[in-house]
Amino acid sequence: MRISAGVGAAAFVTGCQSTTGIQSGQSAGKSFHLALLSDTHIPADQKNGNRGFNPYENLKQIVPQVTEVEPEGVILCGDAARLEGLEGDYRELRGLLEPVAAKAPVYIGLGNHDDRTNFGKVFTLPAGAKAGIKNKHVVVIDHESLRIVMLDSLLYVNEVAGLLGKEQRAWLKEFLATKSDKPVVLFVHHTLGDEDGDLLDADRFFEILAPFPQVKAIFFGHSHVWSITQRGNLQLVNLPAVGYNFRDQDPVGWVDAKFDARGVDLTLRAIGGNKADDRKITRLDWLNA
Length: 289
Description:
By secondary structure, this protein is an alpha/beta fold. It is about 20% helix and about 25% strand. The protein has one domain (about 10-285): Purple Acid Phosphatase, chain A, domain 2.
């Protein structure tokens, strides 16, 4: 299987800093169709589960759904591995994602249950892609209708809290200062509250974003909750978990997303947990557009 930072068959973009991504003109029209996954928690032991859910079987069920809708890319928003980011976890994940990666690039971010070293043993970074922020991996995806930035909030493996860190925050501020030509959407694994298990520098994160109206939304995971809220002019989208929920009231599944220059249509695809809103479409229009 080819591992690539660009577009093509069997393409994994493995949390490196890259501005290759999907470039303007490579996608028909002005829409950008992505499948959004988070918290897959794939274990080396295919039978390992939690709360009556089997993460391996869940993703195995979701992959055909994703390939059926033919997205232009897939984003996995952290906690790809079960708990400690074992090498075997990533080997199972890679095998499960092969049918998707054969048709569209898969962008994998890192969460608190991931391990950079083991991840890199399975998802080899493309030559020349290791650049930028020390011990942090940032992915930039350029599309004609918007720009997506996947940030890295992994602080400690198998501990709850996350951190962007000073260097990544400085990079983001400088990046946004030079990228105002189209909407920007951010992805980060950790939740954005002030609890000990959230993104510890969330307040500084929001301070950086305040002067940049082109930043329209932040997508994140971590809490295994499907919710859409708002902070000022920012849309905050908490993605559901693929692996399992923490509360019976929350769905288990993924989100089919169709972005355009003015917003995004989000379709929940629930395979477990609370499936009441399965296939419900929510339209988010960018504020201050």
